[in-house]
Amino acid sequence: MGKIRTRILGLEEVEQKQKKEQKEKAAEKKKIRAPGLKGGERMVAVEVDEEEIEKMEKAKKIVEEAEEKAQQKPKEIKKKTRGKNYQKAKAQIDKNKLYSIKEAIFLLKKIKYAKFDESFELHLNVDKVGLKGEVELPYSLGKKVKVAIVDDKILAQIEKGKVDFDVLIAHPSFMPKLIKYARILGPKGLMPNPKNGTVSPNPQEAAKKFEKGLFHWKTESKFPLIHQMIGKISQKDEELEENIKAFLKAVGLSHIKEAYLKTTISPSVKIEFKG
After folding, report:
1. Could you tell me the domains of the chain?
2. What's the start-to-end Cα distance of the chain, in Å?
3. Which pTM was predicted?
C-alpha cells in the first residue's frame, strides 16, 4: 500500500499550504536528470525569449550553409587564353633561340599587330635585389618629358590638384613648403628627393638633364627584376638598339642573368648580351 497522506480539514490556510507543497513535489518528480549530474542534482529549465531563439536559428542556418559549401566541389579556374593575333605572333618566335638586340627589334616590329604606337620594354632578371642607378639614354623614349621647377606658382597649382608634369625639381629651400603636398605627389612618384637628383641647389641644371632623358631605375622591392620602357615602336631600329645597350651598361652586364625584349602587348624575345 502506498504512503497515506494526511490533510487537516477545516483549516483553509493549512489546506492551501498542503496543496501547494504537494504540487511542488509533483513538479520536482517531473524534472529530468541529465547524464553526468550527481545524485540529487536536477536540470533547471531556462526561459529563452523569441529574440534569442531567432539568433540561434540564424546561427544554425549559417553553420548549415558553411557545411554545404564545404561539401561542394571547388570551381575550376579557367585559364586565361591569349587571342589569335598573340598566338600567331608567338608562333614566329623561336623560344630556344637567343636573339641579338638587332634581330629582336626587327622581329618584334615584324610581328606587330596593335593599332597604336607600342612601347619597347626591357625586362631583366638580375643577381640581387636593391640594384639601382640613373642613366641618360642617347635617344628619347619616344615622348617629351615635361619637367617643372618648384616655385610659388607651381605650389598654387598643386594646391588646386593640378599636376601636369612628369618630373618635379626643387631647390632645398622649398622642401619645407612641399611637405604638405606629399600626400598628392608621393603616390604619383613626383615628390622631389635628393637621392634621385630632383632636389638640387641648381634646379635649372638638373631640369636640363631630365629633359634630355635622364631617369632612375631600380629592381622591384622584393624580387631581382627590372622593368624599363626603352623607346617606341615608331622609332628607328638604330635608336632603340643604342638605348638598349646604354641601359644594359648602366645596370652592369655582370649583374644581368637574363634579358628579354617585348612591346606593350607582344610576346617576349630573349636577347643576348655580353656579360
Report:
1. 97-142+214-275 (3.30.190.20), 146-212 (3.40.50.790)
2. 112
3. 0.57
Q: How far apart are CA 18 and CA 24, in angstroms?
A: 10
H/E/C letters for each residue in the chain? CCCCCCCCCCCHHHHHHHHHHHHHHHHHHHCCCCCCCCCCCCCCCCCCCHHHHHHHHHHHHHHHHHHHHHHCCCCCCCCCCCCHHHHHHHHCCCCCCCECHHHHHHHHHHCCCCCCCCEEEEEEEECCCCCEEEEECCCCCCCCCCEEECCHHHHHHHHCCCCCCCEEEECHHHHHHHHHHHHHHHHHCCCCCHHHCCECCCHHHHHHHHHHCEEEEECCCCCCEEEEEEEECCCCHHHHHHHHHHHHHHHCHHHEEEEEEEECCCCCEEECCCC
Residues 201 and 171 sit within 8 Å (Cβ to Cβ) = yes
For the chain, which residues score pLDDT lower than 70?
Answer: 1-19, 25-49, 72-80, 143, 275
The pLDDT value given to residue 15: 62
Query: What count of residues does the chain have?
Result: 275
Question: Rounded CA gap, 73 and 20, in Å?
Answer: 62
Q: Which amino acid is at 229?
A: M
Q: Find out whether 122 and 244 touch, Cβ atoms under 8 Å.
A: yes
Cα 259 to Cα 28: distance, rounded to the nearest angstrom: 87
Q: What is the pLDDT of residue 32?
A: 47
CA angle 154, 160, 164 (to 5 degrees): 55
**Which cell numbers in the block locate residue 64?**
548549415
Which is nearest to 251 in space by CA: 132, 141, 139?
A: 132
Closest CA to 190 of 161, 226, 212: 161
